[in-house]
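agent> step 3/5: call structure_predict on target 'Ion-translocating oxidoreductase complex subunit B' (Candidatus Ornithospirochaeta avicola).
agent> reason: downstream docking stage needs a structural representation; sequence fetched in step 2, passing through unchanged.
tool.input:
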Amino acid sequence: MAIFLSFAVIAILGLILGIGLAFADKKLKVEKDEKLLLLEEAMPGANCGGCGYAGCSAYAEAVFKGEAEPGLCSPGGQALAEKMGEILGLKVDVKEKMVAFIACRGNSEVTKKAYEYKGMEDCNALSLLLGGNLECKEGCLHMGSCAKVCPAGAISLDSENSYVVDKEKCIGCKKCVAVCPNGVIRMVPYSAEYLVACNNTESGAKVRKSCQRGCIGCRICVNKVDSSPFVVENNLSHNDYLKNQENAAKAAELCPAKCIIKR
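tool.output (status=ok):
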C-alpha cells in the first residue's frame, strides 16, 4: 500500500509540474517577428559560414536587426538578396558573387619534387615537413585538403592532375581558403575569365628551376599588351579585375610560361 501511495504522489507531482511548465512556456514564450520568420524560411540552409555568421538563422537575425547587409549569402546569391530586401522593404545593392580559385597548375609532370613523401594525406601535415615535398614552397601540395572540406563538392582533380574549382558549384564559403597552408586559394569575381594560376613570388630564375608553369615576373603580359588588365607585383602577375578585360586574352596568349589561363 505504501509503495502504491508513493507512486501515486510522484505521478500527481509530475502531472502538476508538467501543467506548470506548459503554462509557463505559453506565457513566457517570446514570439518571433513575422519578418524574421520569413527571412529564416528564405535562407538556403547551407550553414556554411561564408557570410561571417555561425549559420543561416544567425545571419537572418543579423539582417533583421540591421547588423548585416542582405547580400552576404553566396549560396543564395542575388535571388536571396532581393527576397530579403523585399521582406524588409529595403533596396538591395547586390555585389558580384565571389568564387574560389586555386592559383596553381603545378603537378608531378611540371613541378620538381624535393623529396618523396609517404604519410598522412593532408596539406597542413605535409607543409610542416620543410614546407612540403616540392621545390616550389608556395604552390599547391596536392593532398586535397581543400576538396575534403568543400561542402559543395566544387573542388576536384582535372585531367592534368591539378586541383581546380568548379565556379558553378562553388558557394563562396571560403572553407578551402582557410584550410590551405600556402595561401594558394583566393576569392575572385565569378565573371573573371583570365587568371594567373601561380602563387610563387620568387625571382624568375628560381621559379624556372622549380616549376615549368610558374610565373617568372617577365612583365610581358603588361608591357606587350595595350591597356592590359594585368599587374606585376612582387615578381608575380595578377589580374586587376577593375580594369578593362578586353585584352586579357592577348596577355594569356603571349605568356611564355602559359600560367595565365582561361577559366
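agent> step 4/5: record observation. The beta strands are 98-102, 155-157, 163-165, 185-189, 194-196, 230-233, 236-239, 260-262.
agent> proceeding.
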